[in-house]
Amino acid sequence: MRTDLAVIESRWERETNKPVKPIFDLITQGLLNNEFDAIPYERFISKSGLAEAIDYFNSNKNILTIYIGWHGDERRLCVGEYEKMDAKSLLEVIKMRRFEDRENPIKGMFVGSCYFGRKANAKILLGFDSPLTWFAGYRDEVDWGLSSLLDGFFMMEYVNIRLRNVIQKYKTRNTLIYVCKSIRKHNSGLISNLKFSVYLKLKNAEQEIVDLMEISDEELDSLGYYKGD
């Protein structure tokens, strides 16, 4: 069986490297008892390489969520050693295939970098013309080890729920709500310390966005059709 998640990352340091790939390998190979295929993975070293990796996964109708791992600041991803990509440019890459034969399949994006998970970037990535339903990231500088743990908790819950087909209706939205309820319950300290946010685009006329880490459990439940523990 396949997941609908893909991972893209670059080399984190010039002399040493601490890739997040082993965390995602653990999710499929260890925690899920080798029941599922490995999570698709690509590396990049430049803006063009990141764009090509996103476009490659964007052409796969089975991929609905992309995780991007690399350094960032308040407005841009630091792509490779010298290049940067802001939220508007990142959205343009995501939309590259929107006018081809089928609707753009990517609905969620998790950016595992410092600072980039701020609301200003979320407003751009989840704007009226965006195919994305949700965006997650960190609003401040984060410790690599602790943020990798939270990344792993989030994605383990996401993959587990998607592959076991727990949710039947409005899957993208309700899967996210289910995952957020779970990580809030078990990882509230990490979420607060790391200033982690998960933004959801609402279905109202204004298409407002809400941070699912900042609202109450009752408000979280009210946003979807899923009810339960």
Properties at a glance:
alpha/beta, 229 residues, 7-stranded mixed β-sheet, Rossmann fold, 8 helices
Describe this structure as you would to a colleague.
The protein is an alpha/beta fold. The chain has one domain: Rossmann fold (3-Layer(aba) Sandwich). 38% of the residues lie in helices and 17% in strands. It comes from Rhodoblastus acidophilus (Rhodopseudomonas acidophila). This is CHAT domain-containing protein.
* Contiguous runs where pLDDT drops below 50 for at least 5 residues: none
H and E order: EHEHEEEHEHEHHHEEH
Query: What is the CA-CA span between the terminal residues?
Result: 26 Å
Radius of gyration: 16 Å
The CATH topology is Rossmann fold
Strand content: 15-25%
Mean pLDDT equals: 82
Indicate the CATH architecture: 3-Layer(aba) Sandwich
The gist of it:
The protein is of the alpha/beta class.
